[in-house]
Design goal:
The chain is built from six helices and six strands; from the N terminus they run βαβααααββαββ. The chain is an alpha/beta fold. The longest helix has 12 residues. The two termini are 24 Å apart.
Amino acid sequence: MQTLEDAHIAVIGLGYVGLPLAVEFAKRYPVIGFDASERRIAELASGHDRTLEVLEAAGSKWNFLRSRPGLVGGHCIGIDPYYLDHKAQEIVFHPEMILAGRRECGVYAVAAPEINAYDAVIVAVAHRQFIAMGIDRVREFCKPGAILFDVKCIFPQDKVDGRL
């Protein structure tokens, strides 16, 4: 990493802690989010979130409008831009305005982080999959000299660069 502005960050675990953390970092840095659940990755990538974690995280942005169907009507229901994007691409139309909005956030959910690619890796959950992965495997995601921060203290203190 040349400067802090050049940092690339990986957040491991896209739940109640990891997702909002990734969204906040993405305001200034390129961020990928990794989760052990392929279902969760697919869900977030398609713009759906059964737990509403994405809706809550998005609600922290100043220009986000929380639209949900009410008890009456139907003519005032907002259109989910991710659904609109999905449907547009099904007919081979690429809605650049919608796609640009998705890229602006900077958090990309992936099934597996790249090896030796990140200036900072944040372990945001204590799921058994990540504990089983082990500290050596998690370190493989880091560039030389990268920071590994363990929010949930699942790894030994002398093996990470910081923890709560």
